[in-house]
Amino acid sequence: MFPASFGYVAAHSVDEALQLLARHGEDAKLLAGGHSLIPAMKLRLASPRTLIDLGTVPGLSGVRLDGATLAIGSLTVHGDIADSDLVRQHLPGLAEAASMIGDVQVRNRGTIGGSVAHADPGADFPVILTALNASFVLQSSSGQRTVTVDDFFVDFYTTAMTVHEVLTEIRIPLPPTGSGTAYAKLGHPASGYVVVSAGALIQRSPSGACASARVAIGGLGGVPVKAVATEMELQGKPLTPEVIAAAAAKAAEETDPDGDTYASADYKRHVATVYARQAIAAAVERAAG
Ligand SMILES: Cc1cc2nc3c(=O)[nH]c(=O)nc-3n(C[C@H](O)[C@H](O)[C@H](O)COP(=O)(O)OP(=O)(O)OC[C@H]3O[C@@H](n4cnc5c(N)ncnc54)[C@H](O)[C@@H]3O)c2cc1C
Q1: What angle do CA 58, 70, 137 make, to 5 degrees?
Q2: How many angstroms does the Cα of residue 54 sit away from the middle of ligand 1?
Q3: Quick check: pTM over 0.90?
Q4: Which residue of 33, 119, 138, 192 shows the fewest CB atoms closer than 10 Å?
Q5: What ligand 1 atom has the least distance to the C-alpha of 46?
Q6: How far is the CA of 126 from the centre of ligand 1 (A)?
Q7: Where does the chain have alpha helices with state H?
Q8: Three-class SS string for 81-125?
Q9: Angle 241-248/265-288 helices, nearest 10 degrees?
Q10: What is the pLDDT of residue 262?
């Protein structure tokens, strides 16, 4: 299928992209890797009159340490996150999630900023970034603001970003000493998109008990679900396989997923407990290592 006809303009700075957004109004769309937007345009689910290309803006790509924060430019492609030494060292769960996205072509073109801005309920980054307590830096002509992950994802394909903002950076606090991170997913066999997935950030105390836990589940609704009952069940307990299994069994509590042609609601809820257990167990192992 062919998209409706559209104009194209390359931005050379974030300021220029913002000016172009102001000039073209709601008829314009920012273009990053194009791996969600172009298919949507071909299906006529989106028909922007103008595409404003961010791929020509220098400085929006790369991973760097900024004190106790890992800062990832919004134009960083999935493959570079999967391969980044900094990410693998500090946040192996994020590298793991990036490495599971789509196929090589998708990972070489798709960007983390495009993924979270698109907010597809089947996307991987929103889930692991919820577990990692990330923040999103948004630039507009009136300044910069930072939105925490718990406020960023609002609903299916909807975020807290306005059409006048450019996402420039994703910021993730480095986990405290004794922590481990992990991601596990059941992907759709054709596309790789999430059927159900789980991200975990677990901190072990010196005694081996759970000092803190953040667990997020994807695939059970429009946005990642924080598995609060699982987190509470782990808190302060020894991180044995039995404790992990009992906590993971609560991962789908108070969720009401829709069934679809691929997976029924009951199946998704069950699989959520299985992948939560895998992610928590892997994070605990990394915390110990
Ligand atoms: C075959 C296939 C398989 C896939 N499998 C998976 C998978 O398994 N898991 C998964 O998570 N994803 C998957 N994807 C989606 C892929 O990861 C996309 O690349 C990603 O979701 C969108 O990133 P992008 O850079 O391509 O963004 P684009 O398509 O360019 O843009 C997407 C949206 O974000 C907006 N946007 C982009 N950048 C910014 C910014 N910096 N600031 C503000 N708004 C911005 C755009 O205006 C647009 O609305 C798959 C895609 C394909 C085609």
Answers
A1: 60
A2: 13
A3: yes
A4: 192
A5: 49
A6: 12
A7: 14-24, 37-42, 78-83, 85-90, 92-99, 104-109, 112-118, 125-131, 149-152, 228-234, 241-248, 265-288
A8: HHHCHHHHHHCHHHHHHHHCCCCHHHHHHCEHHHHHHHCCCCCCH
A9: 150
A10: 87
pLDDT of residue 254: 87
Residues in the chain where the model's pLDDT stays below 70: none
* 183 touches 128 (CB < 8 A): yes
CA atoms within 13 A on the CB side of 195: 23
Across 214-235, b (16+ Cβ under 10 Å) vs e yields bbbbbbbbebbbbbebbbebbe
Instruction: Tell me the CA–centroid distance for residue 77 and ligand 1, in Å.
Output: 10
What is the rounded distance in angstroms from the CA atom of residue 136 to the CA atom of residue 119?
Answer: 13
Amino acid identity, position 88: R
CA distances from 56 to 130, 137, 138, 162 (A): 29, 19, 18, 22
- Calpha distance 153→135 (Å, rounded): 11
Residue ID of nearest Cα to ligand 1 atom 1: 191
Q: Which residues sit with their C-beta closer than 6 Å to ligand 1?
A: 29-37, 39, 54, 74, 101-102, 106, 110-111, 113-115, 117-118, 120, 123-125, 166-167, 187, 191-193
Residue 177 CB partners (closer than 8 Å, separation 6+):
none
pLDDT tens digits for 141-172? 999 999 999 999 999 999 999 999 999 999 99
